[in-house]
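Newbie here. two chains, one complex. Structure please?
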Amino acid sequence: MSNLENITSSITGILADILDLDQAQITPETYVVRDLRAESIDLLEIGVAMQHRLDMEVDDDTLFLKNMRQVLARAAKAGKAPEEAMAAEYPHLDRARIAEILADREAGPVIKVRDLAAYAADRAGEAED
Amino acid sequence: MKLSFRGRTALILGGGSDMGLALTALLREEGVTVIPTHVSEAGREAVDRRFPELASPRLDLGERDFAGLAPILDAGVDYLVDLAQGDLEGLAATAGEEAEGYLEAHISGRLRLLRAVTRSMIPRRFGRLVFVSSTAAALPAPGQAFYGAAKRAAEGLYQSLGLELGARGVTSVSLRLGLVDAGRGKRFLDEGARRQNLGGKVVTLEQAASTLLFLLTDQALALTCTTITMDAGLTAQKYL
């Protein structure tokens, strides 16, 4: 099992515990809010659980893309491409995922399980560096 | 009545104050491990004189992060008693940079600290937050604009945290104290004939510390998301 798979498994376990769900039904493509109905207080707890169980510092704002609207508004005001602004603010997301998010954001909260895993993998990589 | 304590560790902000020292002594009698913080050298020395065996980390609400507390929070804190409050006399109408810094530290800084502390409590499904407020939150005297506003804002933060995190076992209460015969209250009372003029409407240090101790007990946990006034009747009457 790769490091990313291990991290994803840990995260789906955390989500299952906190949201009282069957872990097998949670995949990397599952939306955390749209599909799992996580509320703000759940997101707080998910962030805390990731911090403890994965032994890493977690910045909720970055993990859950909480400031995305402001990031995009600032980019628009500065005449900057939204993709560039998103890549600078959320370095754990690759370009393909950023494009997906930008296309998908009008449909509701965009965060997926794979985004949490990408964040954790990125942080773990930083720790190893 | 036998009082019990579910938690084992208490973090006391402003632990070098008279009230912090008195509460530390009471908690230790109950077998609770106490971590009293200090912001000034005088506070550190006060803790060291009374409890030389206790480590006292420095904590300043005005600092951007509280990295020094990380090992303590990682180990787990059950109780937070917040006695941290600087003095700043001034009128709202003349507020300047110093006032802005004071409010930033005592409101935003306090919120950052509460965020860090509650993160230590949530995974353990238990935490008790006790804020030591003041009757100045509701009835500030001229010159207490920033002190009173900071206290009132902090009461709001504690109330909301209790509401938001109650289902995770974290409760909160604020205690509005009137004139306490210790610290800045004692200095105020010692001026002129104030002590006599107030007709006994003074809270003793022992009363304040004992009440704080009670608020930390399991028996008091239903006192949450609320503010209690303890001022010996000072603010109950129309005129003094």
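Moderator note: Chain A touches chain B at residues 41, 44-45, 48-49, 51-52 (CB under 8 Å). The mean pLDDT of chain A is 93. Thread marked as resolved.
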